[in-house]
Every structure is written in C-alpha cells, then in structure tokens.
Amino acid sequence: MTRVALSMRMTEATGYKETRDSISHDWLARLAAWGMTPLLVPNLGQRVTALLVDLRPDVLVLTGGDDLGATSKRDATESALLAHALAAGLPVLGVCRGLQLINVHFGGRLVAVDGHAGKPHAVTIAPPWRGLYGASATVNSYHGQGVPKDGVGDGLVVAAADGNGRVEGLCHGEKPLAAVMWHPERQGGLAGDRQLLAGLAAGRMPWR
Prior knowledge:
Layout: E1 2-7, E2 9-12, E3 19-22, H1 25-33, E4 36-41, H2 48-55, E5 59-62, H3 72-88, E6 92-95, H4 97-105, E7 111-112, E8 121-125, H5 130-133, E9 136-139, E10 145-146, E11 156-162, E12 167-172, E13 177-180, H6 192-201
Parallel strand pairs: 1-4, 1-5, 5-6, 6-13
Antiparallel strand pairs: 2-3, 7-10, 8-9, 8-11, 11-12, 12-13
Helix pairs in contact: 3-4
C-alpha cells in the first residue's frame, strides 16, 4: 500500500493555551478512498528529517493551511522536509501552501491574491498535464497568496494557471516533484489528483 507522509499545520487549542499539530480528516478520508496509508509528520523543525527516514514514505505531501511566515516552526519543518526529499530523491506533492513553499525554495516569489478564498474558479491546464486533467478544469480555492507568472522558481514548469495568469500548478523539469494550488482532499478536488499522487509515489513523473 502506498505510504504518504503528510505535513501538518499548527493550531491553538480552544479554551486553554496549547499548541497542537493537526491534520484535516479530509486528507485521511481521501487517502483511505485511494487505498493509501497516511503517515503524519509533526512539526519538529530541523529534527524532522530523521523521523522521515524512519517512516519510509513513498511520497511526501506538503499540505495547505497557514501562510508562509505565519508559523516559524512549521516553516522550518517543511523546509527541512523538502530539502531532505530533494536530496534523497523522495517524490513530493505540494498543496496550496506547499506549492508556495516549493516555489520559494527554488527562488520564486509570491504575491497577495484577492478573491480566491472559498471561491471555485476555472484554470487552464498546460500541455504536460493535459493527460491527467484535460485542457481546463474548475478547482476549489482557499489561498490568499499566489505565484505570478513572472515569479516562478528556477527549474519549475507552469502546469496550470488561472484567468489572470497566476500559477495553479507546477512541476519540476527533472525531478518527481509537483504542486497544485487547489486542494485534492476537499470537495472540488479533481479526478486527476489521484493519478498525479500515485504516479509520484511510484517514482515517476506522470506528466511525461
């Protein structure tokens, strides 16, 4: 069974002061429906890489939630996870915040995006991903930051864009790494998301 390592957001408990790592049950339900096993990765900062080695996942998913810079420990954890995955050849899928983190890691930049939170919208799919998604799709959307078309990191290829040219999907030209701004785990995820994740977990670049 495919083993999927999932990064987690940091949240505050209600009623008393306690910071927790948390994951949406949407992810657990989606992976169960796809016949995949979730492996939850806590926010341990730089120390997280040893845990990732022990978990032996087939693919790493950098999940959504929180803007970059909002939680320094999560930023440090996911940056360490991404760096380790790239060095070890572990496939990576970034989701929303995960796409933003990947783009910044490769030297790209972010801009504020208005009117996308909670509002589905159309995207155009670039040729490399049309075998997965077709030429266009309507996706869910929950982000306040995005990647402009002139802000893409080195080595990354735009795989999907919204009507204003902002990036909605990225992949790497030479590595098993991809990212989407929509949320595959939530209502409005696309049928091609499963094929993308499964292909990455198998060590392939399924858009080739």
